Automatic annotation (TrEMBL):
Organism from which the protein derives: Basilea psittacipulmonis DSM 24701
Family: Belongs to the AIR synthase family.
Pathway connected to this protein: Purine metabolism; IMP biosynthesis via de novo pathway; 5-amino-1-(5-phospho-D-ribosyl)imidazole from N(2)-formyl-N(1)-(5-phospho-D-ribosyl)glycinamide: step 2/2
InterPro entries linked to this entry: PurM-like_C_dom, PurM-like_C_sf, PurM-like_N, PurM-like_N_sf, PurM_cligase
Protein name, as recorded: Phosphoribosylformylglycinamidine cyclo-ligase
Amino acid sequence: MSDIYKSYGVSAAKEEVHAAIKVMKPSAAGNAFCQAVDMGDEYFHLLHADGAGTKAIIAYLDYKETGNPKVFEGIAVDSIVMNTDDMLCVGLVDQFVVSNTIGRNAKRIPQEVLTAIMRGYQQFCDEMSQYGVNIQLCGGETADVGDLVNTVIVDSTAYSKIKKSDFIEAGRIDPKKETVIVALASDGQASYESAYNSGLGSNGFTVARHEILSKYYADKYPESFSDSLDKATVYNGQYKLDQFMPQVGRTISELLLSPTRTFLPVMKKVFDELRPEIRAIIHNTGGGLSKSVNFGRGVRYVKDNIFELPFIFDLIRQGKDISDRELWTIFNCGQRLELYVASQHAQTIIDIATSFNIKAQVIGFIEPCEEGHNEVLVKHKGKSEIYTKYF
């Protein structure tokens, strides 16, 4: 577990969660990126749950400072995309049914915030329909649970199904086959985005918030952090939300609250052209660049040509408490989606991504390692880290 995450009571690798779920019946699809259910027909059925996490706290801080609830529209996008873009890793890019679960402290989160969240859900679904991605909203639950929640939690659940013949199981990846890793960038401005995206996504926000934002927020909004934490350890950065960063032409708030980029439009086109050639897809959410260590057996993932660190991650790295090793295992660091293919197919993926104004490049390859464990080797600018998982 990352030391800095542990100090905040958070785990990027979720070791305790993975240990707890061992009591449950395993997925019908084995070592796939998402759990799947076999109902005895030609499909795998998926029901996936995720959410915007503590990113909603930053929206809350911005709302309290400005009075503008619009920032919560992006939180709805985060909540959906954290589901759909996990599900695309097994081959799904269409026909989603989405429900939401919102837990709020009604004394701090009024109706106008709920309206902004609902508007964000609908706007995202409408936008995706323009790219042939059908996402239907199907109600949800909004609970006033002020005794449990200081501000607001925005979670979603998504359902879809996929033909078993189209299902992509990352755990089946063969390290003996020549395979390269093509990464799609999380930052910049995709053709279907309305503004520059910092690339931060929805992971690592407990660290990002406390490494970037100043003690001003601890003093003014004590409800924005757990009372189990020592106040001296929170909000140790130097920035306020309205501070303008000329390097990227955005405020700190805009950088932190950039909606998590969806890759659905891109991957729909990739699947149209290359579906049978895709050996694995990894969504670098919790676990960051080390996420792939969980898939396959006897696989070494060598990532020796990663993207230059986008501005927001460099800003986080400047914090006094975080090492490069932790940075790479908490954050996507600019490459949130990885596709594993034979080298002759890499350029096709890069060209498709470029057509959506998204950077893409080969960031590495896989090779065999000793049986009984997997490794992720990250190399960048003379530094290297190895992440190992034993089975």
